[in-house]
Amino acid sequence: MELLEKLRLDAGESINLRDDLSAGTNVLLHFVLLGGLAWGSGQPFLFPSLGPSAYLLATGEKPRAEGSYHVIGGHAIAAVCGLVTYLVFADGLVAVDVFEQGAPFSSDVGFLVLSGTVAMVLTTIGMLWTDTNHPAACATTLIVALGLMSTVLEVIIIVASVILLVWFHGLIVERVQDLFGVEPNDPR
């Protein structure tokens, strides 16, 4: 009985094992494709901000932020804003290397902070102006603006990965959901 109590989310709601396993299965399907592409090509078809996007698609949560227009548009705006600010403010710097030095008030850290901050502002305004509200894209803009994936090729791969994620979701994942009944009923 104690285990069941730990599974309670609040006084009247429990975890829906079927829905949760369905969402996990859907995420698995998304990442098999992109993980295979990354492994087979040696290119970064998997990156951190793709995870929240796959989650939203897999669970059907928050329709305003999970539709293809929002997911693709948000990441595209974020990638471009991140690349522009990176090239203007921090070209050649990589956050991992710069922060490893641990130098307080370093000009390199300052340039990366400026790049990330301006990228976030531009991405926020760009998504609001285009109604492509997709919060996961804010991580994309930081990934690019901080020098983690900041070449034109990597930005193209980011956008291509997102397009493939959305395409695969519509073509395969939704069909698997219908065929095997693995679409979450209540994504919470």
From TrEMBL:
Transmembrane domains' residue ranges: 27-47, 68-89, 109-130, 142-168
Q: Which domain of life is it from?
A: Archaea
Q: Does the keyword Membrane apply?
A: yes
- The segment(s) forming the HPP transmembrane region domain are 16-176
Keywords of this entry: Membrane, Transmembrane, Transmembrane helix
Protein name listed in UniProt: HPP family protein
